Amino acid sequence: MADIPVMVPVITRYVTYSGYCADCHKRVRSRHPEQISQATGAAGVLVGPRAKALAADLKHRLGGSYGKVSEALNDAFGLQVSRSGWCQADQRLAETARGVYQELIEVIRRSSVVHADETGWRIGTLSAWLWVFANQEATVYAIRDNRSSDVVVEIMGEKFKGILASDCFVAYDDKRLTDWLKQKCFSHLLKDLKGMEESKTGRAVRFAQQLTILLRAALALKQKRPAWIRLLSPSAPRTWKHNWMP
């Protein structure tokens, strides 16, 4: 039988002292190294990092409201925090992570290849867009109220030197990105060519058919790449050309 053990919140009391400085005549307070705030009274109750992380996960990954997050943590762990308290905790987490976020953007800007995409999003009742820029090392998300190339330039910078991999959306082909190296999604290209073949006539249909054959041949060649690598390696036999050339 698998079950979850009973979890009880760990409450830590910090005892600090305050007094007036004899030199500057201002009140000073002692501070414990684990304190994240020097608030006192009703505002002196702090929420620990594990509870904040779980609340943020419930809110942003699983999509619960602050009210439901408050109820879930109260019911499961007896942790009594208001919905406004979790909202303020989220704001502090965002400020804490801002420096790391900028570092991730710099990693993306220095990358040789970056994959980008966007999808619909909601900010309360307002429509927005969730953008993602990723490689094998890092992923950067950006929520913006528009779907224009301004977001691409904002995140990637104006002097991106790598390859931008994306679908065929027009934002990735803005004139400001003319000098960028780009790789378009084969699946989107094949889908567009199929639509052209079904809706157009004459030379447009022949163009779509010929380009489709070319792209599918390129995909087939990619699958044979390991064989090419073995034959082109320095240790390959000198007669390798005869295996490929008539």
Can you tag this structure with a few keywords?
single chain, 246 residues, alpha/beta, 5-stranded mixed beta sheet, two-stranded antiparallel ribbon, 7 helices, 7 strands, disordered C terminus
Shape: elongated
Q: Strands across the major sheet, in which order?
A: 5-4-3-6-7
The number of helical runs is 7
C-alpha Rg (nearest Å)? 28 Å
Written description of the protein model:
The radius of gyration is 28 Å and the shape is elongated. A hairpin with a 4-residue loop joins β4 and β5 (139-144). It has 246 residues and is an alpha/beta fold. The chain has 7 helices and 7 strands, in the order ββαααβββαββααα. The strands form 2 sheets. It has a 5-stranded mixed sheet with strand order 5-4-3-6-7. It has a two-stranded antiparallel sheet with strand order 1-2. Helices cover 42% and strands 16% of the residues.
Helix/strand layout:
Elements: E1 18-20, E2 27-29, H1 49-61, H2 66-77, H3 83-109, E3 113-123, E4 126-134, E5 139-144, H4 149-156, E6 163-166, E7 181-184, H5 186-199, H6 203-223, H7 225-232
Parallel strand pairs: 3-6, 6-7
Antiparallel strand pairs: 1-2, 3-4, 4-5
Entry summary:
This protein is 42% helix and 16% strand. By secondary structure, the chain is an alpha/beta fold. The strands form two sheets. It has a five-stranded mixed β-sheet. A two-stranded antiparallel sheet has the order 1-2.
